[in-house]
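CORE FACILITY INTAKE
Project code: CF-77B
Contact: R.S. (postdoc)
Sample description: multi-component assembly, two entities in total
Requested service: structural model of the whole complex
Turnaround: standard
Below are the sequence entries exactly as provided by the requester. Do not edit them.
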Amino acid sequence: MISAISQARVCIVGLGLMGGSLGIALRSRHACRTVIGSGRRRDVCQQAVALNAVDEATTDAVAAVREADIIVLAAPVRTIIRLVGELGPHVQPSALLMDIGSTKAAIMQAAESLPRHVQVVGGHPMCGKERAGIAAADPDLYQGAVFCLTPLERTRAEALSLAGDLVRAVGARPLVVEPQRHDALVGAISHLPYLMATALTTTAAGVAATDPLIWQLAASGFRDTSRLAASDVDMMLDILLTNRPAVTEALSSFRDKLDELQHLLDSGDEQALQQMMQAAQRRRRGMFQ
Amino acid sequence: MISAISQARVCIVGLGLMGGSLGIALRSRHACRTVIGSGRRRDVCQQAVALNAVDEATTDAVAAVREADIIVLAAPVRTIIRLVGELGPHVQPSALLMDIGSTKAAIMQAAESLPRHVQVVGGHPMCGKERAGIAAADPDLYQGAVFCLTPLERTRAEALSLAGDLVRAVGARPLVVEPQRHDALVGAISHLPYLMATALTTTAAGVAATDPLIWQLAASGFRDTSRLAASDVDMMLDILLTNRPAVTEALSSFRDKLDELQHLLDSGDEQALQQMMQAAQRRRRGMFQ
C-alpha cells in the first residue's frame, strides 16, 4: 500500500456533487499525484475535466479502478453496493477502497464479500447541498466537516491511516465509528430532519390547495425548516431504504414528542408545556454558536 | 386622525426585539415625527434611547399612549390582550391602535370591546429572530417582509391606509387578511415548524443521553431544521395557547404525512415513496429562489 497521500493516484467513481467536490478539493490543494474520474456519461466526464475536478475522466470504471492506489465510490448507497461487487475484484491488491455513501451498514456488509486483500474503509462526510450534480461542486464543501470512517474488522491500520490522510487533505475531520452506530445516529440527526421537511412541505402544499395565500406568509422559519425537502431524491431514497430500522426508530421517537406537545396543548398544562419548550430551547441555543 | 405618517407621534409599547427594531427602523428612516417607547423596565427604556430606537422612553405606558397618534403594542400575544384592555381606554379618539402580535383572532376579539371611536388595525410582520430583547434589534428586520394587517369590521379606511403607510415606511409589504384566516395559515407555515423543531431537538437530546456522539454528526441539515427550537419561549407559548385549533389541525395533517412516509417505507413501495419525495422536492425547489 502506498504510504503517502501525496503520491497516490486517486480514482473517484461517480462525478456528482460529492465526487466532483472531492476531486476539486484534492486537485486545488495538490493533495495527491493524480485524480482519475469515472462517470457513466461522457458529457459529465468532460465537464469534470473542464472544472478541474479530475486530471482525466473515463466512462470505463474498471480501467480507472485498475490504475488507482485509492478508489472512492461516490454515488447513492445502492449504486455503491452494486459498484462494490462490480469493481471490487478489479482493485489492485495493495489499493485502498473507500466510499462516501450516506449509510454504512449495508455498504460494509457488501464489502465483507470482497477478496480479503482489498483494504476497505467506508466513509461518510457530514456535508452536502440540496443541489445535485457536478455543476454545483464546491472546493470547500468538505472544509471543517466531520467525515465518518468505518473500517472493516480486517482492515489494516495503514489503510485507515491513509483514509484519514485523504479526509484531512480536503479539510475535513476524520471520526472512526462503527457502521451500525453511525446509521442509528444519522437516522435521528439527518434522515429524520429530511422526513420532517418533506412532510412539512407536503402539509403546506395541502393547505395551499385551498388557500394559496399561505406561500406569501412563508418566512425564514419555514424556509429553513423545509430546506431539506429539496434534497436529491435518488440519494435520499437509497438512504431511507438502506436504513429502515434506524429511520423508523427515530421517526417513532419524534412522533412521541409531537404527541407529548399536542397532549400538553390539549390539557392546557401550561407549565409542563413551557418546561418542554425551555428544555429544547436551552439545548438548541447551546449548539452552533 | 392624522393623515401623514411623517407627522405622527408613534408610541411603541414593548421594547423587545420587534418593538425595538420597529423604532430603529422608523427613526433611521425619519419616517415619523417622534417615537415614544414604553417598557416595563427602566434599564430597557434607557437602552432603547441609547440605541436610537426611540426619542424618549417611559415606564408609564398610559402617559405615553395618551400623547400618541399611532400606538403599536409589541409584546407576546396574551400581554397584548391585557394591554388592549388596560391602555385602549386611554387612546385618543383620533388615534390608530395597532399591535404586532403573532396570532390575530384572540387579539382582535379583545379589541372589539374597545370604545367604538378607537381605530384598530391588528398587524403581524412575517419576520423575526431567535434572539429576543432590544439588544438584538435590527433596523432592517422588517425590510422586504410581508406584514399582515387585520382591521376590525368597523375600522375606517383612513386608519387602514395609515397602518399601511407605517408598514411601508419600515420597508415591509402590507397584506390585509381576516384574523381567522391568518391564524389558520400561520398555524401551518410558522407554528408547526416551531413544534417540529422542538420535537426534533428533544428527540436528538434523547439519543444523546445514551450516545453523545450524535452532536458531532449534526451538520447544516439539522442546524436549519432545529433552528426554531431556540425561539423565545414566552412568545411561542402565547402563540400556541391562543391558536390551539389551527395548531392542532396543522399538527394532525403533518402527522398524517409522516404516517404516510412511514407506511411507504414499511411496505417497500419504492415508487410511491419516490413520488411523494419528488412532489415535495418540486414544491420546495420552486420556492425561495
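Facility notes:
- The two ends of chain A are 41 Å apart (CA to CA).
- Strands of chain A lie at 9-13, 34-38, 56-58, 70-73, 96-99, 119-125, 146-151, 173-176.
Invoice: internal transfer
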